[in-house]
Protein: Extracellular solute-binding protein
Amino acid sequence: MARCRWTACLGIAAMLMLAACGGNGEGGGSDAASGGDSAPPKPAEPVTLQFFHTSTGVSVDKFMDDYGNAIKKKFPHVTPVFTPLGKGNTIPELIAAGNTIDILWASIGHLHGNLLEYNLQYDMSELIKKSNFDLNRFEPTSIEMMRQSAKGGIYGLPIGNSSAALFYNKDLFDKFGVPYPKDGMTWDETYELAKRMTRQDGGKLYRGMTFSFQHMALLNQFSLPHIDPASGKATFSSDSKWAVFTDNFLRFNRIPGNEVDAKQMLLAYQSSAFFDEKISAMHATLSGGNPWASDNMGMIDVVTLPTFKELPGVGPQGYPYYFNITSMSKHKEQAFEVIAYLASDEFQMERSKKGFLSALKNPAVHQAFGQDSPSLQGKGLNLKALIPEKLARPALKTKYQSIADQRLMAGWYEMVQGKKDVNTGLGQAAETTDKAIEAQKGK
Structure:
C-alpha cells in the first residue's frame, strides 16, 4: 500500500513538472496566453497629504528639507503639503475654512492643547496591528507618554526625541581656570560651580548659570504632573516636591551677580546670555536643538543635566514629538504608511547623521548622531549627554497643560524677583491655574 502511494506521488509530481514546462511550447498555459507571469501591479493612486505643525518657526522649505522631499522620493504618488502655523492658519481657522489636516505634528507638550482640544485624535492601533508595526523599537517612555494621552491607544508615532542637558562655555572655564562640568554632577555641585564662575572681569559681568525654568519644570526629574489627573487641580501647592524643585533653581538667581530683573528673568535673555553674548558659563535647556550650527559655537560642549540627591542617576523626562493621523483625514492608510516610514531605521539613521535626536532604541542610530553634520564633527563633543541613560518616568499631561505652564511661569517671575516666597508663589500659581481651568470648562 505504501509503495502504491509513493508511485502515485511520483506520478503527480511528474504531471506538475510537465504542466510547469508547458508554457514554453505551443499552446502553453494561461500565463503564456496573457504574455507574462502576471499583470504588473496597479500604480498607487495619487494622494495629497496635508501636514500641520503646532509650533511656529518651521517654514515650508524647512519641512520639505527635513521630511517632505524624503516622502516624495519614497512615495512618488504622495504629495506632502505643509501649512505653517501663523495668522489665519491656526487649527480652528483651518477647520472653519473647511481645510483638512491629515497629519498633525506636535510635541508631547502640545498634544493635548491641539490634537485633543479640537477633537482631532484618531487611534491608529488597528493600522499598527494590520501592518505588524513593532512599537518595541521605540524608547519606552515615548510610547508610554502617548498611551497616557490616548488612554491606552496610539494617536501618533514618535518621529524624534529631546530631553534636557547642561551646556557650558569652555572658553569661560579656561579663562578663569575652573575645571569643566562633568557628566553625573548633582545640582548641589553645579550650584557651587556656578558660584565660582559668577564674577566681574574687565568691566563685564559673567553669569555662572542661566536656564529655561519652564522646560526644567516640564521635564522635571521628580516626574511631577502640573495637573492631578484624578482631581483636575494644579499640584504646585499640594505636592511638597514642587517647592524642593523650585527652590533648587531659585538659589542660582540668589548668587550675588547672578540676580535677574524683569527682563533678565525671561527665557529670551537667559538663552541669549549663553549662546549670543557668551557671558553665561552654563545653560540648562532642551537638548534637541543644535547649538553648534553657528560657526562661532565651537567653544560649547555639553554634559548630562545635573541630578537631585534624592534621585541619584535619574535624568529629566523625555520630550518626544509625534506625527499624528487626524480623525478628519480621508487617507488614513496612506498617512500611516508615510509616518511608519519616517519612524523607520532607514529614515531615522539619516536624521541622526544630520544631528537630530531619534526616539528609537537602535544603538546604531544613536551612534551615528551628527556624522554628516559639519558643525558637530571633529570637535570631540560629548554628544552622548544629550539624552540621559535613565529618563525620568513621564508625568501625565492633560489638555490644560498650557494653562498650568503659563500660571507656573507667572508665579516663577514673582518668586525670582523676590516679590513672593516659594510657598506663596506656588500657591498663587495653583490658585490661578484652577480658576483658569474652571473658566475654560465653562466656555
